[in-house]
Every structure is written in C-alpha cells, then in structure tokens.
Write a structure and sequence with these properties.
Elements: E1 5-9, H1 13-19, H2 24-45, E2 49-56, H3 64-87, E3 90-95, H4 103-116, E4 122-130, H5 132-146, H6 152-158, E5 169-172, E6 191-194, H7 204-215, H8 225-228
Parallel strand pairs: 1-2, 1-5, 2-4, 3-4, 5-6
Helix pairs in contact: 1-2, 2-3, 3-4, 5-6
Bound molecules: 3-methylbut-3-enyl trihydrogen diphosphate (IPE) (2 copies) and magnesium ion.
Residues 10-15, 55, 59, 70, 174 line the site of one 3-methylbut-3-enyl trihydrogen diphosphate (IPE).
Length: 238
C-alpha cells in the first residue's frame, strides 16, 4: 500500500558536491532537481502529502556563503517553480519560523500558498527554518495564550502541520541514522526508512524501495499483532 503522507530529510547534498570537487551550493542546486523529480514521482504514485526538510533551525550555523546560497536557491525556486506546481494540482505550504527570513521570501511564501490553495492532488509542505522543538514550543505558546488546557489533541491542532495527518513514512537519505530536529511530535508512529543514497541521486528506484519496505511493515500503534492482523474470514463451506 502506498503511504498517504511521506516525509523526507533530504540529506547528502554537501557530500554529493564534495565527491565531485564542486562547491556545496552546487550540491544544493542538484538537490533541488531531485526534489522536482520526487514531486513528480509522488504525483504519479498517488501520494497525498509530501513533507520535505529543506532548511533546519540549526542550518543557520553553516558558513555564511552556504546559507546565502541556499537563500538564493529558495528565492529562485519561488520565482520559477510555482506555475508548474499550480498546474499539476500541488497545494504548497511553507512550514517553519518566519522570523529570520526576509520580507521578500515571506511574501513569496504567501503568494505561492495563495496561488495553489485550491489544489487537491498533492499537498507539498516545505519545511524551511523549521525545527521540531520550535514547532512544539510555538504550539504550546498558542494553547497557553488561549487559556485552554494543554492536551495532546489541542497541542497537535496548534502545530505547524495541523492541516495534514501525521506522516506514514519518513525517508532520510545520506546515511545518517537520526532525526536532526525534524518532526519530533508528528513522527510518534511513523515508519522510518534510512537510505545511503545522497539526496541529489535519489530517484524512482529509491522511492519505490522505501514504499515497498513500508508496505511490508506491520503498524501496531501499541496493540498486539493478533489485534491488527487482517481478519481471516471463515467460509461456510469449510
Ligand atoms: C542537506 O544536505 C541539505 C541541507 C541541510 C540544507 P547537506 O548540506 O546536509 O549535505 P551533507 O550532509 O553535508 O552531505
Ligand atoms: C537535516 O540535515 C536538515 C535538512 C536536511 C534540511 P543536516 O545535515 O542539517 O543534519 P545533521 O547536522 O547531519 O544532523
Ligand atoms: Mg547533512
């Protein structure tokens, strides 16, 4: 079964570039190509929601030229990619802390979201200046300000991804076995898939491998295997 919501930590751009004696930003540029390809694949496979980690709260600590290169790539993508996403039924959301981002980028986010809000084929969440800890803290602050009790349900409703169900499958490329402050709350029962492929090389066989692995998992959500196994129907002839 195809997962409804796939989340991806798109990691390995820097190493992809290093291997080719290219600047790290060249890896990010190629990473953008891989994302474009991955969106098409998800559309083809009937995935409902794709959530990608594009820039973390902690990535500001990288060298200034890499951070500015990533901001330029983002601005270029906002200017160029939105029309085709719009035409292909993609509903865009930019998820993360807007503080620290330029007014121009924030306006670009709003315009892209507004232009694609009516689309229903694929919800694409781009997590930019996102951190799982930031998300939980901002949600807790919202609930506290409302004066309501802080319950899991109320908190979930205030998180930055409240418009979609939790991810079914998380893919991390680049070989690292960690979450790196991605969706800390939402990954509670997500199936995890780690791939050694560097993100710029990620293509159809790697996505299909992850989807196949997911299809073989038994999701128990705390229950026993007997409780969740599909019921075997006895026929009256037996
Ligand atoms: C992921 O690739 C993209 C961002 C974090 C923006 P990296 O840049 O982390 O690539 P590696 O891990 O150094 O290879
Ligand atoms: C996670 O990758 C963030 C993104 C992919 C945007 P990092 O490369 O920043 O993670 P660490 O530093 O290896 O944990
Ligand atoms: Mg990395």
């Amino acid at each position: 079964m195809t997962p409804h919501h796939i989340a991806i930590v798109m990691d390995g751009n820097g190493r992809w570039a290093n291997k080719r004696f290219m600047p790290r930003v060249a890896g990010h540029r190629q990473g953008l190509e891989a994302l474009r390809r991955c969106i098409r694949l998800c559309l083809d496979r009937g995935v409902g929601v794709l959530t990608v980690f594009a820039f973390s709260s902690e990535n500001w600590a990288r060298p200034a030229d890499e951070v500015s290169g990533l901001m330029e790539l983002l601005a270029g993508a906002l200017a160029r990619e939105v029309p085709s996403l719009k035409d292909n039924g993609v509903q865009l959301h930019f998820v993360g802390d807007r503080r620290g981002l330029s007014d121009k980028v924030c306006q670009g986010f709003e315009q892209a979201q507004g232009a694609t809000a009516h689309n229903r084929r694929l919800v694409l969440n781009i997590c930019f200046n996102y951190g799982g800890r930031w998300d939980i803290a901002q949600a807790a602050q919202q609930v506290a300000q409302s004066g309501e009790a802080i319950t899991p349900e109320r908190l979930a409703g205030a998180l930055a991804l409240a418009h979609v169900p939790d991810p079914d499958l998380l893919i991390r490329t680049g070989g690292e076995l960690r979450i790196s402050n991605f969706l800390l709350w939402q990954l509670a029962y997500t199936e995890l898939h780690f791939s050694d492929v560097l993100w710029p090389d990620f293509d159809a066989p790697h996505l299909d491998e992850a989807i196949d692995a997911f299809a073989g998992r038994e999701r128990r959500f705390g229950k026993t295997s007997a409780q969740v196994a599909p019921a075997v129907h006895k026929t009256s002839a037996a």
